[in-house]
Amino acid sequence: MRRPGLAGLGVNLAGFLLALWAAPRLPGLWRALFPEIARPVWESQGWFALLFEHLLLALGAAALATLIGLGAGIACTRGAGRRLRPVFDAAFALAQAIPPVAVIALALPLLGFGAAPTLLALVLYSALPVMRSTVTGLDAVPATVLDAARGLGMGSGRILARVELPLALPVIQAGLRVAVVLAIATTAVGAVAGAQCLGTPIVTGLANGNTAWVLQGAVFTAWLALIADQALRLGLAPPR
Amino acid sequence: MPRPLALAVPEGRARPAPPREALAVAILAALAALCPFLLGWISLAPNRLLSPRPVALPMQAGTGIAVACFLTGCLGMVLLSRRGRGLPWAELSAALAFAGLLGAIGLGAGAVLGEAPRMARAMPAAGFWLAVLLLALGAGSCAAGRGATPSRFLALAVVGGGLLLALGLLDGLSVVREGQARGEELRTALVGHLALAGGALGLALLVALPLGLLALRQPRLEMALMTLANGFQVVPSIALFGLLMAPLASLATTWPALRSWGIGGIGAAPATLGIAAYLLLPLASGLLAGLRVAPPALVDAARGQGMTPWQILLRLRLPLGLGVILGGLRLAAVQAVGLATLAALIGGGGLGRLVFQGIGQLAADLILLGVMPVVALSLLVDAGLAALQARLGAAGSPGR
Questions:
Q1: Cβ–Cβ of B140/A93 closer than 8 Å?
Q2: Average pLDDT over all residues of chain A
Q3: To the nearest whole angstrom, how far is the Cα of B177 from the nearest Cα of chain A?
Q4: Residue A20 included in any domain
Q5: What phi-psi label fits residue B330: left (phi over 0), alpha (psi between -120 and 50 degrees) or beta?
Q6: Which of residues 24-53 of A touch B (CB under 8 A)?
């Protein structure tokens, strides 16, 4: 049953790219929709450049967050690291109560305008779901399986690589999906701190009272997020 | 069952083993105690434009007492967390450390400014911020066993901070001065923020409650509701606000009467609508999961006894699932407070106005003035509802 989903995703993606290509080439459409706005077409940057920057920032942060989250998750399920687990639980609870935009705003005076504050917030917020799912997945590996692996003479490193991580993979993948969708969505908020992304036309449009730019940026940002969600649902579908 | 002799600790008196949180709390408290000494307590900027530099904390009677409070609090965290029963007290000790730290930089800032030029501004240095973060994490670690929301620490820290502020001990800090200069604006923003978050929560409840109750019996409605709620969650908030703007603006141009109700492209109405859309998922999924906590066999038995569907709902499903339902409400309320910050982007007011104004001017004090109440509000809402959840949820479930 994977084919129809894949085809749907392909159509969606093709439509998205076509719309990105067409947006600056249809001044008539935007003039008709927004007759009162003098320059309704977004021409400051190319849409593909913005898309590239958006994906670079979001996926780069997600990759970094995956490394951190996986490492922390593995570390706090074994040996002495087990005793540091309350810290990670507390960090998770704290981050849930503090909105990402607050972190971006707080980091701004320290790191300056641009992508840096957004990257910080992205890594912080994406690492936590990965870590939590890693811990949950590793915790769920039955003790009997571990005993059997030890009985076969496997070392702890090999047990981790060959037994624990493969068994925990579905849960970890669910965490990864949350992290990537979160990263793509949060990147858009980074536009308020000067990060170049698909959110940039929204923020610029809001500042200049140009509803047309806001609408274009909003449509493409939302569309990208939905495509990412769809793709990850397909690619990381849990085995049934 | 008696413990095997081989496992008994051979030396000294028998002591209860320290709880699993002890090491984490001890490390965090020790780091927190070191931070201000290594990275500085306060920074001084010659004026608003030049960047701040760390300065030494002036030692006087007041700052001395405050620093002593801070160190005592950190030490208390280490010692009290050695026993499982001491963990709540270790959390309170973290609050004492926080109050001492705040008092130290407040008094220190006042003293430093006394000798500095008139335009100088004093602000907390990196050491202070890191120590606050570590204290919060330490308090959270103490509370890790019960959901990791250190409600005791938060309540006491907010009360202590408010007291220090009311006594005028923090007047030297630049962010407090900024707040005093913008008192009226800050108050309006706070009220607006609460109205936005509360209004959105109310609106989302109005939609989610009846639909959730109906969806309990109609799987197709449940699927539609959940698909819609999940879809909203995927769309970035800033894009949803943008998407709402254009249609609402054109509605208002077509029927000018709507404008008198506050409906238009910009303002509080689209913001409230946008925030409410995000709250659907936590509210609806919490409600549905909560109503399904009651085991089907129990529901069947109640039906067999002749209870009406309403009676089953009110006497069985609701009391049993209250904890889960409140969990959804808690998540939604916290999200509402955070999302209301973005409302300022589309002219919805709230504390985000100060934040975005501060971002525009790259004025750290103004950003802080807006962000700190947002963070405090969401932490308080989270802690308050977590406490309510613990009390009511535990009372409702049997056998606990």
A1: yes
A2: 84
A3: 18
A4: no
A5: alpha
A6: 33-34
Close Cβ partners of A108 (under 8 Å, ≥ 6 residues apart): A117, A193, B359, B362, B367
Whether residue A61 has pLDDT greater than 70: yes
Q: Which residue of A has its CA nearest to B372?
A: A102
B295-305 pLDDT, tens digit per residue, is 888 888 988 99
* Cβ contacts of B245 on chain A, cutoff 8 Å: 211, 214-215, 218
Chain B residues with CB under 8 Å of A86 CB are: 20-21, 24-25, 140-142, 144, 148
Q: What is the mean pLDDT of residues A94-117?
A: 83
CA distance to partner chain A, nearest, from residue B374 (Å): 8
CATH code assigned at A107: 1.10.3720.10
Please choose, from the candidates B29, B19, B112, the residue with its C-alpha nearest in 3D space to the C-alpha of residue B63. Answer: B112
Span A145-154, mean pLDDT? 88
| Residue B43 at interface with chain A, using a CB cutoff of 8 Å | no
pLDDT at A240: 43
User: Does residue A39 lie in a domain region?
Assistant: no
Q: How confident is the model at residue B1 (pLDDT cuts 50, 70, 90)?
A: very low
Distance CA B166, CA B178 (A): 15
Residue type, A23: A
Q: Mean pLDDT across the stretch B229-253? A: 80
* Candidates B144, B341, B364; nearest CB to A86: B144
pTM metric for this prediction? 0.83
Q: Of B110 and B11, which is predicted with more confidence?
A: B110
- CB distance B340 to B196 below 8 Å: yes
Higher pLDDT, B211 or B19: B211
Average pLDDT of the residues in A64-79: 88
Fold category of B183-396 in CATH: MetI-like fold (1.10.3720)
Interface of B with A in 149-168 (CB under 8 A): 149-150
**DSSP state, B173?**
B
For residues B322 and B392, give the distance between their C-alpha atoms in angstroms, rounded to a whole number. Answer: 7
In chain B, ranges of CATH 1.10.3720.10 domains: 183-396
Which structural domain, as residue segments, surrounds residue A112?
47-235
In a domain, A36, yes or no: no
Report the domain count for chain A: 1
Tell me if B367 and A109 make a contact (CB, 8 A cut-off): yes
Is the Cβ of A231 closer than 8 Å to some Cβ of chain B?
Answer: no
A28 domain-assigned? no
Residue A57, chain B, CB below 8 Å: the answer is: no
Cβ neighbours of residue B222 closer than 8 Å, sequence gap 6 or more? B215, B216, B288
Calpha distance B167→B156 (Å, rounded): 16
Q: Do B334 and A191 touch (CB under 8 A)?
A: no
Q: Does the structure show a pLDDT above 50 at B106?
A: yes
Residue A136: pLDDT over 50: yes
